[in-house]
Write a structure and sequence with these properties.
heterodimer, A: 89 residues, mainly alpha, 3 helices, 0% strand, B: 189 residues, two-stranded antiparallel ribbon, 63% helix
């Protein structure tokens, strides 16, 4: 129930963002949406995740969360390092 | 109104109540949500749509007459604030686009009179271009125009997908997989 609600919410949010950008940022009758950036969807990612997430056999393996946690921390540190390097070369 | 503090606070509040599994809003919760509806109304379009996330609250919050009143007041504040703000600040929607003529009302009229054409535009953006949007979501720092190396973006995407398949959403608790997902999200904001 909650999962299908999250999926419906995700769909409405995605179509809503596209419509809003099309109406407020694009020339009359444009055939494609200019100015749509993926960052507009960022805030909906947690709730799209709630709609899509499901426990599989992976959830039973205790080492997976630890590896993911370490891996994602490393990825974040590398990404922030690149950002700092680009901002303050 | 700064997007990140307001957006993050609102999302955190919804997620907090979702995890807590509380039966319905208490008086203090209502006021917190109403205040955030006001703050969300002051954001730049299309970020007011973040308000839709309120439907992710536990199912027990969505039933009954009191719940209807709560949601009506929440969206009332959000809509009125958003409309009033865009009227007070003229050209809020169009001030940064000088190369073409922007006419939101005429565009809306065109959508309503030619829904087929707009459906094709929606289809292209939401489905055909979905892989490109996903890649951008994983590995592109917007205003800095800084793409991450492909392998780093791929690792992030893989981390997200794997964390989704380790979540048990029937009983949402602060488990390690959920913490991993939140760690991923923290970097994207």
């Amino acid at each position: 129930m909650a999962s299908s609600r999250s999926r419906a919410l995700s769909l409405v949010a995605i179509l809503g963002v596209i419509t809003e950008i099309y109406v407020s940022w694009n020339a009359l009758g444009a055939t494609e949406v200019v100015g749509l950036h993926a960052r507009y969807f960022l805030t909906f990612v947690p709730f799209v995740s709630l709609g899509l997430g499901r426990q599989t056999a992976l959830g039973d393996k205790r080492w997976i969360p630890g590896v993911l946690f370490g891996g994602l921390t490393l990825v974040n540190v590398l990404a922030l390092g690149l950002l700092a390097h680009a901002s303050y070369p | 109104m700064p997007l990140r503090p307001v957006g993050t606070l609102f999302l955190a509040l919804v997620l907090h109540h979702r995890v807590r599994g509380q039966e319905g809003p208490e008086r203090a919760d209502r006021w917190r949500f109403f205040f955030l509806a006001f703050a969300l109304g002051l954001l730049r379009p299309p970020y007011q749509l973040i308000g839709l996330v309120i439907f992710s609250l536990p199912a027990t919050w969505l039933r009954g007459r009191q719940a209807q009143r709560f949601f009506a007041v929440f969206f009332g504040i959000l809509l009125i604030t958003g409309l009033a703000w865009s009227l007070i600040i003229p050209h809020l929607f169009t001030q940064m686009r000088t190369d073409v003529v922007i006419a939101p009302m005429s565009q809306l009229h065109l959508i309503l009179t030619n829904p087929g054409d707009f459906a094709r535009v929606l289809w292209r953006e939401s489905w055909a271009k979905a892989p490109a949007h996903f890649a951008e979501l994983m590995g592109y720092f917007g205003w800095r125009h800084l793409p991450l190396p492909a392998w780093l973006a791929a690792a992030t995407g893989l981390g997200l997908i794997l964390s989704l398949f380790t979540l048990d959403l029937r009983v949402l608790r602060w488990t390690w997989p959920l913490r991993v997902l939140v760690l991923f999200l923290s970097s994207r904001f």
